[in-house]
Amino acid sequence: MDSVLRLVNPQRESDQRWVHTALAKLAQEAARSADTHLLKLNFPGFHGIDFYFKDEAAHPSGSLKHRLARSLFLYALCNGWLRGGQTVVDASSGSTAISEAWFARLLGLPFIAVMPACTAPGKIRDVQALGGECDLVDDPAQVHARAAEHAARGACHLDQFGLAERATDWRGNNNIAESIIGQLVLEAEPEPAWIVCGAGTGGTSATIGRYLRYRRLHTQLCVAEPAGSAYVHGWRNRDAQAVASQPTLIEGIGRPRVEPGFIFEVVDRVIEVPDAASIAGAWLLEDLFGNRYGGSSGTNLVACLQLAASMRARGERGSIVSLLCDRGERYAQTLFDPSWLAAHDIDLAPWTAALRASLACGRPPLSA
Ligand SMILES: *Cc1c(COP(=O)(O)O)cnc(C)c1O
User: Does ligand 1 lie within 6 Å of residue 328's CB atom?
Assistant: First the structure.
Protein backbone atom coordinates (compact mmCIF):
# COMPACT_ATOMS: atom_id res chain seq x y z
CA MET A 1 0.00 0.00 0.00
CA ASP A 2 2.72 2.39 1.06
CA SER A 3 4.78 1.69 -2.06
CA VAL A 4 1.74 2.10 -4.34
CA LEU A 5 1.01 5.55 -2.89
CA ARG A 6 4.60 6.49 -3.34
CA LEU A 7 4.42 5.58 -7.04
CA VAL A 8 1.06 7.31 -7.48
CA ASN A 9 2.02 10.63 -5.91
CA PRO A 10 5.75 11.23 -5.54
CA GLN A 11 5.29 15.03 -5.37
CA ARG A 12 2.90 14.78 -2.45
CA GLU A 13 5.31 12.46 -0.69
CA SER A 14 8.24 14.83 -1.06
CA ASP A 15 6.13 17.85 -0.02
CA GLN A 16 5.01 15.98 3.06
CA ARG A 17 8.57 14.99 3.86
CA TRP A 18 9.62 18.64 3.71
CA VAL A 19 6.74 19.71 6.00
CA HIS A 20 7.62 17.00 8.53
CA THR A 21 11.26 18.11 8.54
CA ALA A 22 10.23 21.76 8.95
CA LEU A 23 7.93 20.90 11.88
CA ALA A 24 10.73 18.87 13.46
CA LYS A 25 13.09 21.86 13.15
CA LEU A 26 10.54 24.11 14.89
CA ALA A 27 10.05 21.56 17.67
CA GLN A 28 13.83 21.33 18.13
CA GLU A 29 14.09 25.12 18.29
CA ALA A 30 11.38 25.24 20.96
CA ALA A 31 13.11 22.52 22.96
CA ARG A 32 16.44 24.40 22.82
CA SER A 33 14.84 27.67 23.98
CA ALA A 34 14.47 28.79 27.59
CA ASP A 35 11.52 30.79 28.88
CA THR A 36 11.92 34.54 29.39
CA HIS A 37 12.51 35.98 32.88
CA LEU A 38 9.88 37.74 34.95
CA LEU A 39 11.84 40.58 36.59
CA LYS A 40 10.55 42.07 39.86
CA LEU A 41 10.77 45.72 40.92
CA ASN A 42 9.55 47.69 43.92
CA PHE A 43 9.41 51.48 44.21
CA PRO A 44 9.46 53.64 47.35
CA GLY A 45 6.26 55.46 46.28
CA PHE A 46 4.29 52.24 45.94
CA HIS A 47 4.49 50.38 49.21
CA GLY A 48 2.64 47.06 49.01
CA ILE A 49 2.57 46.99 45.21
CA ASP A 50 4.89 44.57 43.40
CA PHE A 51 5.82 45.22 39.77
CA TYR A 52 6.89 42.47 37.38
CA PHE A 53 8.25 42.88 33.86
CA LYS A 54 8.49 39.92 31.51
CA ASP A 55 11.71 40.25 29.53
CA GLU A 56 10.57 39.41 26.01
CA ALA A 57 13.68 41.07 24.60
CA ALA A 58 15.56 37.96 25.74
CA HIS A 59 14.19 35.80 22.92
CA PRO A 60 16.84 34.83 20.31
CA SER A 61 15.27 37.25 17.79
CA GLY A 62 15.00 40.05 20.34
CA SER A 63 11.29 40.63 20.92
CA LEU A 64 7.93 39.18 21.90
CA LYS A 65 7.40 38.58 18.16
CA HIS A 66 9.56 35.46 18.47
CA ARG A 67 6.48 33.75 19.94
CA LEU A 68 4.20 35.05 17.18
CA ALA A 69 6.59 34.16 14.34
CA ARG A 70 6.94 30.60 15.65
CA SER A 71 3.13 30.32 15.84
CA LEU A 72 2.61 31.77 12.34
CA PHE A 73 5.08 29.34 10.74
CA LEU A 74 3.46 26.42 12.60
CA TYR A 75 0.02 27.60 11.50
CA ALA A 76 1.06 27.93 7.83
CA LEU A 77 2.75 24.50 7.88
CA CYS A 78 -0.12 22.70 9.60
CA ASN A 79 -2.66 24.35 7.28
CA GLY A 80 -0.73 23.11 4.26
CA TRP A 81 -0.01 26.66 3.06
CA LEU A 82 3.79 26.43 3.04
CA ARG A 83 6.03 24.27 0.83
CA GLY A 84 9.77 23.74 0.54
CA GLY A 85 11.50 26.50 -1.43
CA GLN A 86 8.51 28.84 -1.24
CA THR A 87 9.14 32.52 -0.54
CA VAL A 88 7.58 33.81 2.69
CA VAL A 89 6.28 37.38 2.98
CA ASP A 90 4.74 39.58 5.66
CA ALA A 91 3.94 43.23 6.36
CA SER A 92 5.71 44.41 9.52
CA SER A 93 6.88 47.50 11.35
CA GLY A 94 10.03 45.57 12.09
CA SER A 95 9.97 43.31 15.13
CA THR A 96 7.84 40.66 13.47
CA ALA A 97 9.94 40.84 10.33
CA ILE A 98 13.10 40.20 12.34
CA SER A 99 11.57 37.18 14.07
CA GLU A 100 10.09 35.84 10.83
CA ALA A 101 13.43 36.28 9.06
CA TRP A 102 15.01 34.33 11.91
CA PHE A 103 12.58 31.40 11.47
CA ALA A 104 12.72 31.55 7.64
CA ARG A 105 16.48 31.15 7.87
CA LEU A 106 16.02 28.20 10.26
CA LEU A 107 13.76 26.53 7.65
CA GLY A 108 15.89 27.54 4.66
CA LEU A 109 13.19 29.71 3.03
CA PRO A 110 13.55 33.08 1.24
CA PHE A 111 11.83 35.89 3.19
CA ILE A 112 10.55 39.33 2.16
CA ALA A 113 9.54 41.93 4.78
CA VAL A 114 7.24 44.70 3.56
CA MET A 115 8.00 47.66 5.83
CA PRO A 116 7.30 51.37 6.04
CA ALA A 117 10.36 53.26 4.76
CA CYS A 118 10.50 55.17 8.09
CA THR A 119 11.20 51.97 10.10
CA ALA A 120 14.20 52.26 12.44
CA PRO A 121 17.39 51.57 10.39
CA GLY A 122 18.60 49.13 13.05
CA LYS A 123 15.59 46.88 12.39
CA ILE A 124 16.12 46.93 8.62
CA ARG A 125 19.74 45.90 9.18
CA ASP A 126 18.63 43.08 11.51
CA VAL A 127 16.28 41.64 8.86
CA GLN A 128 19.00 41.83 6.21
CA ALA A 129 21.58 40.28 8.52
CA LEU A 130 19.26 37.27 8.86
CA GLY A 131 19.11 36.90 5.08
CA GLY A 132 15.73 38.63 4.63
CA GLU A 133 14.91 41.14 1.91
CA CYS A 134 13.22 44.45 2.86
CA ASP A 135 10.63 45.87 0.49
CA LEU A 136 10.22 49.44 1.79
CA VAL A 137 7.04 51.38 1.01
CA ASP A 138 6.67 55.13 1.51
CA ASP A 139 3.07 55.07 2.72
CA PRO A 140 2.69 52.86 5.85
CA ALA A 141 -0.98 52.28 4.91
CA GLN A 142 0.19 50.47 1.75
CA VAL A 143 2.08 47.62 3.45
CA HIS A 144 -0.90 45.24 3.44
CA ALA A 145 -1.58 45.74 -0.28
CA ARG A 146 2.10 45.24 -1.14
CA ALA A 147 2.28 42.00 0.88
CA ALA A 148 -0.84 40.78 -0.97
CA GLU A 149 0.92 41.48 -4.31
CA HIS A 150 3.83 39.24 -3.29
CA ALA A 151 1.33 36.55 -2.23
CA ALA A 152 -0.44 36.80 -5.61
CA ARG A 153 2.92 35.97 -7.22
CA GLY A 154 3.15 32.76 -5.16
CA ALA A 155 4.68 33.75 -1.83
CA CYS A 156 3.22 32.38 1.42
CA HIS A 157 1.75 35.35 3.31
CA LEU A 158 2.25 34.73 7.04
CA ASP A 159 -0.28 37.54 7.67
CA GLN A 160 0.56 38.53 11.23
CA PHE A 161 -2.25 41.10 11.35
CA GLY A 162 -4.88 38.71 10.04
CA LEU A 163 -3.83 35.62 12.01
CA ALA A 164 -2.11 36.75 15.25
CA GLU A 165 -5.21 36.20 17.32
CA ARG A 166 -5.83 32.62 16.08
CA ALA A 167 -2.34 31.24 15.36
CA THR A 168 -1.47 31.25 19.08
CA ASP A 169 -2.86 28.55 21.36
CA TRP A 170 -4.52 30.78 23.98
CA ARG A 171 -5.40 27.91 26.35
CA GLY A 172 -1.84 26.86 27.01
CA ASN A 173 1.26 25.55 25.25
CA ASN A 174 3.28 27.97 27.37
CA ASN A 175 1.75 31.02 25.73
CA ILE A 176 2.85 34.32 27.28
CA ALA A 177 -0.06 34.41 29.75
CA GLU A 178 0.41 30.85 30.96
CA SER A 179 4.11 31.53 31.36
CA ILE A 180 3.50 34.69 33.43
CA ILE A 181 0.91 33.11 35.72
CA GLY A 182 3.17 30.08 36.22
CA GLN A 183 6.17 32.24 37.11
CA LEU A 184 4.16 34.08 39.80
CA VAL A 185 3.23 30.93 41.68
CA LEU A 186 5.54 31.51 44.67
CA GLU A 187 4.99 35.29 44.89
CA ALA A 188 3.16 37.14 47.65
CA GLU A 189 0.51 38.28 45.16
CA PRO A 190 0.35 35.47 42.57
CA GLU A 191 -2.90 36.71 41.02
CA PRO A 192 -2.03 40.13 39.57
CA ALA A 193 -4.44 43.04 39.90
CA TRP A 194 -3.46 44.09 36.37
CA ILE A 195 -1.57 42.84 33.37
CA VAL A 196 -0.51 45.66 31.06
CA CYS A 197 0.45 45.22 27.40
CA GLY A 198 0.44 47.19 24.16
CA ALA A 199 -1.49 46.34 21.01
CA GLY A 200 0.01 46.03 17.55
CA THR A 201 -1.56 42.97 15.97
CA GLY A 202 -3.67 42.65 19.13
CA GLY A 203 -2.47 39.07 19.46
CA THR A 204 -0.79 39.48 22.85
CA SER A 205 -3.81 41.17 24.44
CA ALA A 206 -6.16 38.56 22.92
CA THR A 207 -4.08 35.68 24.29
CA ILE A 208 -3.73 37.22 27.76
CA GLY A 209 -7.39 38.29 28.00
CA ARG A 210 -8.72 34.90 26.95
CA TYR A 211 -6.32 33.04 29.22
CA LEU A 212 -7.33 35.12 32.26
CA ARG A 213 -10.98 34.17 31.71
CA TYR A 214 -10.16 30.56 30.94
CA ARG A 215 -8.26 30.27 34.23
CA ARG A 216 -11.05 32.18 36.08
CA LEU A 217 -8.63 34.77 37.42
CA HIS A 218 -9.74 38.21 38.65
CA THR A 219 -6.81 39.93 36.95
CA GLN A 220 -7.78 42.85 34.71
CA LEU A 221 -6.17 43.56 31.35
CA CYS A 222 -5.00 47.06 30.49
CA VAL A 223 -3.82 48.02 27.00
CA ALA A 224 -1.25 50.83 27.01
CA GLU A 225 -1.40 52.80 23.78
CA PRO A 226 0.07 55.93 22.16
CA ALA A 227 -2.31 58.87 22.47
CA GLY A 228 -4.88 58.99 19.66
CA SER A 229 -4.22 55.50 18.27
CA ALA A 230 -6.95 53.56 16.45
CA TYR A 231 -7.37 51.18 19.40
CA VAL A 232 -7.92 54.11 21.79
CA HIS A 233 -10.84 55.38 19.71
CA GLY A 234 -12.02 51.92 18.66
CA TRP A 235 -12.11 50.41 22.15
CA ARG A 236 -14.09 53.34 23.60
CA ASN A 237 -16.91 52.89 21.06
CA ARG A 238 -16.40 49.21 20.13
CA ASP A 239 -15.77 50.55 16.62
CA ALA A 240 -13.72 48.27 14.36
CA GLN A 241 -13.63 51.02 11.69
CA ALA A 242 -11.86 53.54 13.95
CA VAL A 243 -8.63 55.13 12.72
CA ALA A 244 -5.85 56.95 14.56
CA SER A 245 -6.27 60.68 15.11
CA GLN A 246 -2.50 61.22 15.24
CA PRO A 247 0.62 59.28 14.20
CA THR A 248 3.07 57.90 16.77
CA LEU A 249 6.83 57.52 17.07
CA ILE A 250 6.42 54.31 19.09
CA GLU A 251 6.99 51.26 16.90
CA GLY A 252 5.06 48.02 17.34
CA ILE A 253 1.95 49.64 18.84
CA GLY A 254 -0.34 52.59 18.01
CA ARG A 255 -1.76 51.21 14.79
CA PRO A 256 -3.31 53.60 12.26
CA ARG A 257 -6.35 51.27 11.99
CA VAL A 258 -8.03 48.61 14.15
CA GLU A 259 -6.49 45.27 13.14
CA PRO A 260 -8.63 42.13 12.97
CA GLY A 261 -6.71 40.47 15.82
CA PHE A 262 -7.72 43.05 18.43
CA ILE A 263 -10.52 41.65 20.62
CA PHE A 264 -12.32 44.57 22.29
CA GLU A 265 -14.21 42.46 24.83
CA VAL A 266 -11.18 41.04 26.66
CA VAL A 267 -9.70 44.48 27.40
CA ASP A 268 -10.79 46.14 30.66
CA ARG A 269 -9.06 49.47 30.22
CA VAL A 270 -7.03 51.44 27.68
CA ILE A 271 -4.53 54.04 28.90
CA GLU A 272 -3.32 56.69 26.43
CA VAL A 273 0.33 57.63 26.79
CA PRO A 274 1.91 60.62 24.98
CA ASP A 275 4.95 59.61 22.90
CA ALA A 276 7.35 61.77 24.94
CA ALA A 277 6.20 60.02 28.15
CA SER A 278 6.74 56.60 26.52
CA ILE A 279 10.25 57.55 25.41
CA ALA A 280 11.08 58.97 28.86
CA GLY A 281 9.78 55.64 30.19
CA ALA A 282 12.13 53.73 27.89
CA TRP A 283 15.08 55.81 29.13
CA LEU A 284 14.01 55.20 32.73
CA LEU A 285 13.88 51.43 32.11
CA GLU A 286 17.57 51.56 31.22
CA ASP A 287 18.27 53.06 34.66
CA LEU A 288 16.07 50.49 36.38
CA PHE A 289 17.35 47.37 34.60
CA GLY A 290 20.77 48.31 33.20
CA ASN A 291 19.54 47.28 29.75
CA ARG A 292 17.85 49.24 27.01
CA TYR A 293 14.31 48.40 25.92
CA GLY A 294 12.17 49.89 23.16
CA GLY A 295 9.51 52.57 23.18
CA SER A 296 6.52 50.30 23.72
CA SER A 297 8.14 48.99 26.91
CA GLY A 298 8.26 52.62 28.07
CA THR A 299 4.55 52.99 27.24
CA ASN A 300 3.87 49.94 29.41
CA LEU A 301 5.90 51.34 32.32
CA VAL A 302 3.96 54.62 32.29
CA ALA A 303 0.61 52.78 32.27
CA CYS A 304 1.76 50.53 35.14
CA LEU A 305 2.59 53.58 37.26
CA GLN A 306 -0.74 55.18 36.40
CA LEU A 307 -2.62 52.05 37.53
CA ALA A 308 -0.45 51.71 40.63
CA ALA A 309 -1.23 55.31 41.62
CA SER A 310 -4.97 54.52 41.49
CA MET A 311 -4.44 51.38 43.56
CA ARG A 312 -2.43 53.37 46.08
CA ALA A 313 -5.10 56.09 46.27
CA ARG A 314 -7.68 53.39 47.09
CA GLY A 315 -5.37 51.79 49.65
CA GLU A 316 -5.05 48.56 47.64
CA ARG A 317 -2.10 46.17 47.66
CA GLY A 318 -1.26 43.72 44.92
CA SER A 319 0.85 43.10 41.87
CA ILE A 320 1.03 44.55 38.38
CA VAL A 321 2.65 42.65 35.50
CA SER A 322 3.83 44.06 32.20
CA LEU A 323 6.14 43.30 29.29
CA LEU A 324 9.53 44.46 28.09
CA CYS A 325 8.67 44.01 24.43
CA ASP A 326 11.93 44.42 22.51
CA ARG A 327 15.60 45.37 22.74
CA GLY A 328 16.45 49.05 22.95
CA GLU A 329 19.58 48.72 20.81
CA ARG A 330 17.28 48.77 17.78
CA TYR A 331 16.47 52.40 18.56
CA ALA A 332 20.01 53.72 19.10
CA GLN A 333 19.61 56.07 16.12
CA THR A 334 16.06 57.12 16.99
CA LEU A 335 14.57 57.07 20.51
CA PHE A 336 17.97 57.01 22.22
CA ASP A 337 19.59 59.68 20.02
CA PRO A 338 19.20 63.21 21.48
CA SER A 339 19.55 64.86 18.06
CA TRP A 340 16.79 62.64 16.64
CA LEU A 341 14.57 63.58 19.60
CA ALA A 342 15.28 67.28 19.05
CA ALA A 343 14.45 66.92 15.35
CA HIS A 344 11.11 65.41 16.37
CA ASP A 345 10.40 68.12 18.95
CA ILE A 346 10.50 65.69 21.85
CA ASP A 347 11.44 67.10 25.26
CA LEU A 348 11.94 64.28 27.74
CA ALA A 349 12.73 66.46 30.79
CA PRO A 350 9.19 67.09 32.10
CA TRP A 351 8.22 63.45 31.65
CA THR A 352 11.41 62.14 33.22
CA ALA A 353 10.64 64.34 36.23
CA ALA A 354 7.01 63.16 36.37
CA LEU A 355 8.04 59.49 36.19
CA ARG A 356 10.70 59.89 38.87
CA ALA A 357 8.20 61.69 41.13
CA SER A 358 5.82 58.81 40.56
CA LEU A 359 8.40 56.20 41.61
CA ALA A 360 9.36 58.25 44.65
CA CYS A 361 5.95 59.47 45.86
CA GLY A 362 3.32 57.27 44.19
CA ARG A 363 1.87 60.11 42.11
CA PRO A 364 0.11 59.28 38.82
CA PRO A 365 2.57 60.24 36.04
CA LEU A 366 -0.16 61.26 33.59
CA SER A 367 -2.25 63.48 35.86
CA ALA A 368 -2.49 67.05 34.63
C1 LIG B 1 4.15 43.79 18.14
C2 LIG B 1 4.68 44.60 19.21
C3 LIG B 1 3.88 44.96 20.30
C4 LIG B 1 2.41 44.58 20.40
O5 LIG B 1 2.15 43.19 20.41
P6 LIG B 1 0.93 42.52 19.62
O7 LIG B 1 0.86 41.14 20.12
O8 LIG B 1 1.28 42.57 18.15
O9 LIG B 1 -0.31 43.30 19.86
C10 LIG B 1 4.46 45.75 21.28
N11 LIG B 1 5.75 46.13 21.20
C12 LIG B 1 6.55 45.78 20.18
C13 LIG B 1 7.97 46.24 20.15
C14 LIG B 1 6.04 45.00 19.15
O15 LIG B 1 6.83 44.65 18.14
Answer: no
Pick the CATH number of 65-165 from 3.40.50.300, 3.40.50.1100, 3.40.50.1220, 3.55.50.30: 3.40.50.1100
pLDDT tens digits for range 7-24: 668 888 889 999 999 999
Q: What is the pLDDT of residues 132-181, one digit of tens each?
A: 999 999 988 899 999 999 999 999 999 999 999 999 999 999 899 999 99
228 and 244 Cβ atoms separated by less than 8 Å: yes
* CA–centroid distance, residue 64 to ligand 1 (Å): 7
**Residue 81: C-alpha distances to residues 26, 88, 249, 261 (Å):** 16, 10, 35, 20
Q: Coil, helix or strand for 273?
A: strand
Q: Do domains 27-60+176-361 and 65-165 have the same CATH topology?
A: yes
Report which DSSP code applies to 109: -
- The answer to whether residues 301 and 322 touch, using CB atoms and an 8 Å cutoff, is yes
Q: How far is the first Cα of the chain from the last one, in angstroms, to the nearest whole number?
A: 76
Among protein residues, the one whose CA lies closest to atom 3 of ligand 1? 252
Q: Which value, in Å, is the radius of gyration of the alpha carbons in the chain?
A: 21
CA of 251, closest atom in ligand 1: 13
Pairwise CA distance, residues 247 & 258, whole Å: 14
For residue 297, the ligand 1 atom closest to its alpha carbon is: 11
Q: Which of 79, 85, 55 shows the shortest CA–CA distance to 67?
A: 55
pTM: 0.95
Q: For residues 141 and 121, what is the distance between their CA atoms, to the nearest angstrom?
A: 19
Residue boundaries of the structural domains of the chain: 27-60+176-361, 65-165
- The structural architecture, per CATH, of the domain 27-60+176-361 is 3-Layer(aba) Sandwich (3.40)
The reply to whether ligand 1 has any atom less than 6 angstroms from the CB of 61 is no
Instruction: Give the ligand 1 atom nearest the CA of 202.
Output: 9
> How many whole angstroms separate alpha carbon 147 and alpha carbon 112?
9
Chain centroid to CA 321: how far? Answer: 15
